[in-house]
Structures are given as structure tokens and as C-alpha cells.
Amino acid sequence: MALSNDNPAMVFYDIAFRPPVESTPAAPNPWKARYALNMKGVPYKTQWVQMPDIATVRQKVGAPACRKFADGTDYYTLPMLTDSTTNSILGDSFDIALYLQKQYPDSGTGDLFPSQTLDFKYEHDTAFLVPLSEREEGEFGEYVRFNRSVDSVFTAHVMLMAPGMQFDPAHVEAIQAMFAKRAGVETLPPMEFGAEDRAKLMVSLRDAVADLVKLLNRNETGPFIQGQQASYADCIVGGWLRMMKMTLPAFEWEEVMGWYDGTLEKFYQGLEQFSQVK
Ligand SMILES: N[C@@H](CCC(=O)N[C@@H](CS)C(=O)NCC(=O)O)C(=O)O
Q1: Where in this chain does the record put each GST N-terminal domain (predicted)?
Q2: 47 CA from centroid of ligand 1 (Å)
Q3: Which CATH architecture has domain 10-110+118-273?
């Protein structure tokens, strides 16, 4: 079939959650890439993948795993982007954004990696978790470090989000079996924990993002870190806020939106224009 707007050269692979899948994407790293694709305004279509199928789909496309489990075995993840015009396969959200910037330097909102100071640091013992975003710092070191810190702060509070992930009922058993196997147990214990523990974790997250909020407030001309100019740094934060929006109970999400005089709400609303699911 010839390439067209209905059959674009770029295919973006995201994790399928509860149907209708277009209304429920909840994974933060795919969201970072979706924001970047939409900022660039380039044609692409989404291929939805059930979690237990990610490894097979990546292997079929020829994308090596970009994460490892603690025992050293491959951990296949999404997002992934393929571009048939350049025969490219990108298997990591950061690589997708770099690729889009290289291929389409002036499209859409322009430079995804403008030079800027991203001085939010979060260090936490997340050794119990498999690292999400290990990579060489290279040319865009400021963005790499920022990605790592933002991933860490939200990952350290992921227990607020994990119980709210809603999978396709047709696949939920297979998904739970996969998680149990990873944890080395027969059956997963219930993930819910008490209201008091959740409330404590909410306070912990609110305090942990104080410096991130300062960064969001630094330029008063607009909702983004650089004011009116959106960049990949905004996609990184937006990806995690999206996950929270999709998984927290409504009253907790409202609370988050109200933190720090609504800074996070203003930021989140600013990103709405780049949130189309295509
Ligand atoms: N460094 C990778 C991390 C990707 C990643 O961890 N993706 C998660 C979703 S946010 C995933 O695919 N998880 C699948 C699983 O746990 O089976 C990236 O930035 O793309």
C-alpha cells in the first residue's frame, strides 16, 4: 500500500490498556514519545501492543531490548518507533525524540532540545526497581540527567499509580501471570495499600517535586519550562503526569492539580494541545 496520511511511514508502538485503547494509554515513556511526535506534527499511526506481546513484537521488528532485568536477562519495553522511509527502528523514548529532531529539525514547535538548564535533581535508592533510563550523557547530557531524575522521583512513588492501571479484561490474567513470574511468586499479592499510606506517599511526592515546580515556574511567559517554547523536557514531565491522570483516583488527581497554586495543572493543560492519540 502506498504511503499516505492513512498509511504513514512512521509507526508508533504503545502499550494497550483497557478498551477503547485510544482513550486509556497510561504508560509514561510512550507518552513522552507521543508528546514529542505531536509537537513535531509529523504523520504517524499507533500500533497497540498487549503487554505480554511486547517481546515478540520487538523481536519481530528487530529492536533489541533497551532494559535488563536484575538477573541480566532482556527486558523488552515500549515505546518503539519505526520509519519505513529511512528504515529506522527506535526502541527508546529518548532515542525517538532525538530521531525526530534530527529528521524534522524545523517541524511543528521547532527544536525539541534547545539548550537550557534543567536543574532538578532527585536521587533515591531505587535499586529495588530496574532502572528505566540508563544511558550515556553525550550531547544532550542536561536532558539525559533530567530524564533520569524525573523518572526516579515518579518511580519512587509508583505505588500511588500501579493499583490504578487498568488492563484489557481479555488479557489481564496473562499480564498478572507475567508480573508474578517476574516477581518469582506464584500469585501476586493485592497491590492496594491503605488510605493512610497513600496519603503519606502523596505528601512525599508533593515535597519531592518542589524543585521541579520551581523549574516549571521559572519562565513566567507560558506553561512550559521555557515559557512559550515547548521542548522534550516538557514531554518527560508530561509523560508522568499523564500516567498519574490515568491511574490515580479522581480526588487525588485533583489534589495534585492543586499543588503549588496550580502550577502542575497549568503545565498539564498547556500540554493538552500535544496529546492527540492517533
Ligand atoms: N528507557 C526506556 C524505558 C521504557 C519502559 O520502561 N517502558 C515501560 C512502559 S513506561 C514498558 O514498556 N514496560 C513493559 C513491561 O513492564 O512489561 C524508554 O525510555 O523508552
Answers
A1: 17-108
A2: 15
A3: 3-Layer(aba) Sandwich (3.40)
Nearest-atom index, ligand 1, CA of 79:
20
Q: Which atom of ligand 1 is nearest to the CA of 27?
A: 10
What is the distance between the alpha carbons of residues 82 and 14, in angstroms, rounded to a whole number? 12
Arithmetic mean of pLDDT over the chain: 93
**In this predicted structure, what is the pLDDT of residue 131?**
58
Q: Ligand 1 centre and the CA of 135: distance in Å?
A: 14
Q: What pLDDT shows up at residue 28? A: 98
Q: Do residues 14 and 49 lie in contact, with contact meaning Cβ atoms separated by under 8 Å?
A: yes
- Three-state secondary structure call for residue 158: helix
Residues 1-13: tens digit of each pLDDT: 677 777 899 999 9
- How far is residue 132 from each of residues 90, 175, 236, measured CA to CA in Å? 16, 20, 12
The radius of gyration of the chain from alpha carbons, rounded to an integer in Å, stands at: 18
CA distance 64 to 61: 9
- 93 pocket-lining for ligand 1 (C-beta < 6 Å): yes
Higher pLDDT, 271 or 133: 271
Q: Which residues pair with 90 in a beta bridge?
A: 81
* pLDDT class of 41 with cuts at 50, 70, 90: very high
Q: Where are the domains of the chain?
A: 10-110+118-273
Q: Is the CB of 205 under 6 A from ligand 1?
A: no
pLDDT digits (tens, 9 = 90+) for 124-139: 765 555 556 678 888 8
Q: How far is the CA of 243 from the centre of ligand 1 (A)?
A: 13
